[in-house]
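TA notes, week 10

Several of you asked for a full example with nothing omitted. So below is the full record: structure tokens for the whole chain, then the designed sequence directly under it. When grading your own attempts, check the secondary structure regions first.
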């Protein structure tokens, strides 16, 4: 539990540099459909199979009938966690050279550089329970460490995507990107 708290504080510190720019739940602008260089630009929506409904689990439960201390609420959270840990991925993406934007959630690094991180679809995803489904979390291993700086809350990642599950204290990832380049986020065309 202590490790999760420390990781959450690190996450908040990493995202805190841009707190004035984003509200919890904010998503980045949808990128242009055209490829940037030799990379195919994709979004988090592309990481979900077309026939998968991430909200299906909520249709089984009447949330308005539950209180926080209700044992059924804890049971519901366990069901959500299990369903989202098993969220299906899109096999056709494996091995593709992709470019995608998201919010950086530091996993490994120090006060100068980040060596491993999660890429998530919306601001604040690392501090909410439950975290996004596994097919909406990407484990990123940059070729070279990413400098810590004020622009690193939202980033573009260029690299090779693979289907590789990763369990972390901040959420489970269904994909991995071996990043060739990580750069501060700017809307395409700027």
């Amino acid at each position: 539990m202590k490790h999760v708290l420390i990781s959450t504080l690190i996450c908040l510190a990493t995202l805190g540099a841009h707190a004035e720019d984003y509200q919890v739940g904010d998503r980045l602008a949808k990128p242009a459909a055209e490829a940037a260089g030799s990379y195919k630009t994709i979004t988090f929506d592309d990481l979900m199979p077309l026939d998968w409904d991430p909200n299906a689990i909520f249709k089984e439960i009447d949330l308005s009938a539950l209180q926080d201390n209700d044992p059924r609420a804890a049971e519901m959270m366990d069901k959500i966690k299990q369903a989202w840990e098993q969220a299906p991925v899109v096999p056709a993406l494996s091995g593709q050279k992709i470019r995608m934007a998201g919010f950086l959630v530091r996993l490994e690094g120090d006060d100068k550089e980040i060596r491993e991180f999660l890429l998530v679809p919306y601001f604040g995803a690392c501090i909410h329970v439950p975290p996004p489904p596994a097919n909406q979390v990407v484990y990123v291993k940059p070729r070279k460490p990413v400098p810590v700086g004020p622009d690193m809350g939202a980033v573009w990642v260029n690299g090779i995507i693979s289907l590789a599950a990763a369990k972390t204290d901040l959420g489970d990832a269904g994909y991995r990107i071996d990043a060739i380049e990580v750069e501060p986020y700017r809307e395409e065309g700027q």
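The longest helix spans residues 2-16. Use that as a sanity check on your answer.
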